[in-house]
Write a structure and sequence with these properties.
single chain, alpha/beta, Arginase, Chain A, nine-stranded parallel β-sheet, 9 strands, globular
Length: 285
């Protein structure tokens, strides 16, 4: 039963929702193993209230203190340009009604059109990017819209005021140069402790690629990059954020490589904790 720990409300009964889930079953821009298109369905499947509750670690009850709805999936049946346009349009519709989009990918290429949708309302937007990879290639295998390129496109388009990257462990010289050019703050995996506190002045969008975690915590991704973060490090970071969260995505879950739904369950837990943090602006002590 897909009910997000019992927090899910019926959209038709609650048109003035606060948190809107958007699925994007798309992985045509993956450069390695396909399968991330099944990510949204996997997260929904594990979300049953028969296993999980609606309460977060910061004591936010997502069933009682907010309105969470599932808006279904973006139509990805056309070509990539059409899909990207649908993503941008759907996200823009959610943010322009004052709600917070929760975007379930899908490969990481979807973050570029999602941020374009966010920019329709937020002209000054900060991004927290958690990922094993910088995703700042100018192009990969001739594709400028590859899942390895979304942050490069976002920076080039001037869609972000401040970009902070956390957890990277696969920089190339080309990507380091681009980070320097745009003043990107990077906290590579080896520098991340258990008590990292980040502050953002502008509205914050979070893009979380599940391969930011060590494969021991998240085996269900297409690119296993050893030496990653623990789940507790990331939860602590989210709980202590000094920021106003206005949207977020969870990407690169590949259920074909998952083990006993470990990664899907982690993705659902992340959804709960980030959503709870978004509606409870005061960070943890």
């Amino acid at each position: 039963m897909t009910d997000f720990g019992g927090a899910l409300k019926n959209h038709s009964l609650y048109p003035d929702f606060v948190l809107g889930i958007i699925g994007v079953p798309f992985d045509e821009k993956s450069s390695f193993i396909r399968g991330a298109a099944a990510g949204p369905a996997a997260i929904r499947r594990v979300s049953t209230g028969k296993t999980y509750n609606a309460d977060t670690e910061l004591e936010v009850d997502l069933a009682e203190e907010t309105v969470l709805v599932d808006l279904g999936d973006v139509d990805t049946s056309g070509d990539a340009d059409k899909t990207f346009g649908e993503i941008e349009k759907t996200v823009a519709e959610v943010v322009n009604r004052g709600a917070i989009p929760i975007i379930l990918g899908g490969d990481h290429s979807i973050t570029y059109p999602a941020v374009k949708g966010m920019a329709s309302r937020f002209k000054c937007l900060d991004i927290l990017h958690l990922d094993a990879h910088p995703d700042m290639y100018k192009e990969l295998y001739g594709d400028r819209l590859s899942h390895a390129c979304p942050l490069a496109r976002i920076l080039e388009d001037g869609l972000v005021k401040q970009l902070v990257q956390v957890g990277q462990r696969s920089f190339t010289p080309e990507q380091r140069e681009l980070a320097r050019k745009y003043g990107v703050k990077t906290i590579e995996a080896w520098k991340v402790g258990d008590d990292l506190i980040l502050e953002f002045k502008n509205p914050l969008y979070i893009s979380l690629d599940l391969d930011v975690f060590d494969p021991a915590f998240a085996p269900g991704v297409s690119h296993h990059e050893p030496g990653g973060l623990t789940s507790r490090q990331v939860f602590n970071l989210i709980h202590h954020l000094r920021a106003t969260i206005v949207g977020f995505d969870l990407v690169e879950l590949n259920p074909t490589r998952d083990v006993s739904d470990i990664t899907a369950a982690l993705a659902f837990k992340l959804l709960k904790e980030i959503a709870g943090r978004a509606i409870k602006p005061k960070p943890a002590e």
